[in-house]
């Protein structure tokens, strides 16, 4: 038997309960992983709140990002052995190239069971060996947040649109994706403009290497400030994690032929876009839903040989305090919220 947090009703943390359930059985192509740590993403909260846009079955074990130790392997498994430390690839069937229409059907944390339990079953092809110099907690932050930032800036548009030194990146907020994007950009010599809501975070962002920080609460027309900071040229890349009408502000402060990566919907999942602004600036809009596995592996290879970034963890919670971890996520964080298990 094992302990697992499961969603019994999709109405926030009220619907999540800790249950005692059987340890799952693997098939010939799977591994059984004893979970060491998981990290939370806004996706996990949206699923729990019932606002994700896709309905899941009650009894789901939540949380998409997992790190742990393999305890059992199926007879067809060749790439991994008992004792290996692994992280999961979130979209378990998306290996490379363009995504298929049904990739979400094979994602961990919904509809496949996630990592907020003592054990999780992973397909062999959805396991990766994380960087050796990272802790379990740091490794657990990689599958969604780090991969999303990496894929957006380094892979999604191909060689021509890949982030280059001296280009400028606009990053919204201080969540996991945003801080990974800041570190990736800084590591290759790009300039960064970060939007945040308070002065304490501003100082921390500057220490991390941010070129400029704008307080969007005291400067509601932040898109004009971005243009001023870029000598009216605009930014080359925008990581839009807010959604809603922010997309129009992102367009207004983008460089001609700039790239906007639509990643989140913290404010609103619907947007009314000013098409004239987007057309005349020849904007490239990219819908981002994490990355294929080969992009994840490329990032791990870089992290294992070059110091590009160190995951920023706001707080680590114990397994029994998982509800408190989700409540913290709802309030906002500076970096990742992690839950440790073993």
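Sequence proposed for the structure above (342 residues):
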């Amino acid at each position: 038997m094992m302990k697992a947090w499961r969603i019994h009703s999709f109405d926030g943390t009220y619907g999540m309960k800790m249950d005692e359930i059987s340890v799952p059985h693997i098939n010939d192509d799977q591994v059984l992983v004893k979970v060491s740590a998981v990290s939370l993403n806004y996706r996990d909260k949206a699923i729990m709140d019932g606002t994700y846009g896709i309905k899941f079955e009650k009894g789901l074990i939540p949380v998409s990002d997992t790190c742990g130790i393999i305890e059992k392997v199926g007879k067809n498994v060749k790439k991994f052995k008992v004792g290996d430390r692994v992280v999961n690839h979130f979209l378990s069937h998306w290996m490379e190239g363009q995504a298929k229409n049904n990739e979400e059907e094979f994602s961990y944390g919904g509809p496949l069971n996630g990592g907020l339990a003592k054990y999780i079953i992973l397909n062999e092809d959805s396991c990766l060996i994380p960087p050796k110099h990272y802790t379990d907690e740091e490794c657990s932050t990689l599958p969604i947040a780090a991969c999303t930032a990496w894929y957006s800036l380094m892979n999604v548009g191909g060689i021509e649109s890949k982030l280059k030194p001296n280009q400028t990146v606009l990053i919204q907020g201080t969540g996991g994706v945003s801080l990974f994007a800041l570190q990736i950009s800084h590591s290759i010599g790009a300039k960064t403009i970060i939007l945040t809501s308070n002065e304490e975070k501003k100082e921390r962002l500057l220490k991390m290497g941010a070129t400029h920080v704008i307080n969007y609460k005291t400067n509601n027309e932040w898109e004009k400030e971005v243009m001023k900071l870029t000598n009216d040229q605009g930014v080359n890349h925008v990581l839009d994690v807010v959604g809603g009408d922010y997309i129009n502000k992102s367009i207004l402060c983008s460089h001609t032929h700039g790239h906007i990566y639509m990643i989140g919907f913290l404010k609103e999942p619907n947007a009314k876009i000013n098409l004239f602004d987007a057309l005349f600036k020849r904007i490239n809009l990219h819908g981002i839903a994490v990355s294929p596995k080969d992009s994840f592996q490329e990032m791990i290879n870089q992290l294992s040989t070059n110091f590009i970034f160190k995951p920023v963890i706001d707080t680590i919670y114990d397994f029994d305090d998982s509800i408190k971890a989700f409540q913290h996520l709802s309030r906002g964080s500076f970096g990742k919220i992690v839950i440790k298990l073993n």
